[in-house]
């Protein structure tokens, strides 16, 4: 399953956290592409990154809201 397919499923199932996580990695950081295998997402879901990733996502969400 590609990142694009996972993102589509997140949209269909109203999984906002997953949506913003994917947008952040694709558009803000540019570390993955929508065409990449979805397994690439698991690297960024590691426990060791959780605290900092949550901080990044909160900041990113604020920037998205404020345009």
TrEMBL record:
It comes from the Bacteria. This is Uncharacterized protein.
């Amino acid at each position: 399953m590609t990142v694009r397919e996972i993102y589509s499923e997140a949209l269909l199932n109203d999984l906002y956290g997953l949506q913003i996580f994917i947008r952040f990695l694709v558009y803000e950081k540019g570390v993955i592409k929508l065409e990449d295998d979805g397994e690439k997402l698991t690297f960024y879901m590691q426990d060791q990154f959780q605290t900092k990733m949550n901080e990044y996502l909160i900041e990113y969400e604020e920037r998205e809201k404020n345009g």
